[in-house]
Amino acid sequence: xxxxxxxxxxxxxxxxxxxxxxxxxxxxxxxxxxxxxxxxxxxxxxxxxxxxxxxxxxxxxxxxxxxxxxxxxxxxxxxxxxxxxxxxxxxxxxxxxxxxxxxxxxxxxxxxxxxxxxxxxxxxxxxxxxxxxxxxxxxxx
Length: 141
Hints:
Strand content: 5-15%
Order of helices and strands: HHHEEHHH
CATH architecture of the largest domain: Orthogonal Bundle
CATH topology of the largest domain: Arc Repressor Mutant, subunit A
Distance between the termini: 40 Å
Oligomer: single chain
Number of domains: 2
CATH class of the largest domain: Mainly Alpha
Structural class: mainly alpha
Helix content: 55-70%
CATH superfamily of the largest domain: Winged helix-like DNA-binding domain superfamily/Winged helix DNA-binding domain
Largest sheet: 2 strands, antiparallel
Shape: elongated
């Protein structure tokens, strides 16, 4: 007998392709935009025609990566998920596949041979301080 889940299963949002990430980046920057506005930013960089950008955005809509407002003649599209959620998902998958889930290995590799700005160093110090404090409070429980 197959167990019945206690809550309905929600299918995960599909992972965007490289081209789709490019469109998401434009929409995160511009906010809700028409295909024409996205094409003006992405089409020339990636050598895509208007119809290719339109098709990509329609596919992204079908996959649940974009939402659309059809109330005006020029439909407006925007990302269905927050930028941070998409980044966390993609980074988590990458970290699992390439670094066997080790955040430390990922950070070390990312920082090797690269110069950090003072503000980046300060942010990393704060994150490490918070993570160290989190672990200390977990151990004392």
